[in-house]
Task: structure prediction
Amino acid sequence: MIVDVDETGFRICLHALSDQQIKELLSSLRLDKHSGT
Amino acid sequence: MQTPEMRQLVEQFLGKNAFAVRGILFDKNSDANWKVVWHQDISIAIKEKIETAGFDPWTQKADVPHLQPPAEILERMLTVRMHLDECHANNGPLKVLLGSHRHGKLGAQEIAQWRQHVTETICEVPRGGALLMKPLLLHASAPAATPEHRRVIHLDFAVQNLPNGLQWHDRCFLYPTEIDI
Result:
């Protein structure tokens, strides 16, 4: 946690997902063909 | 969605009754590489079109009705971007203008003024990291300069119902049932 959301509008959390959780997500997700940020 | 990690991220801002209203997976790579100009996220997805004062204009995206709600609705929302790959300065990271979310919906001239007076912050996020962001924060991104994946799950959360029979297109709660608080 490095900055405050209400004050600056954003915050970066460095450890929100484990490697195992990322692997499980990638095996279950479908990629929509939308563009965005 | 209903994981301890997601609850911890969202609850502190929106409380235990928050729910996800939209989820999008973005994969920026050498075959799908794009630039997004400075903007705020001011559209929400709705189940059914019901004309409501202050909730317009309406658009249609991928067969889903969208509208622009008043700023008060957007101010009580939170975006969580879960990064499935490392996002660094060369693969199209999000850029933000700090503090720009506190001034409601901004017109083109106001956005230009923010760009002129505020230095952009580049949001580098490690694999497994999360970026929490207010939808009204001005943000943009450049095309990736390196041919690698930059996969992000973009989740929008809200905590309030909409007026006049309008319904969020999706409502996925952090907990199985609403909690009395």
Remarks:
- Chain A touches chain B through 28 residues (CB under 8 Å).
- The radius of gyration of chain A is 14 Å.
- Chain A has a mean pLDDT of 76.
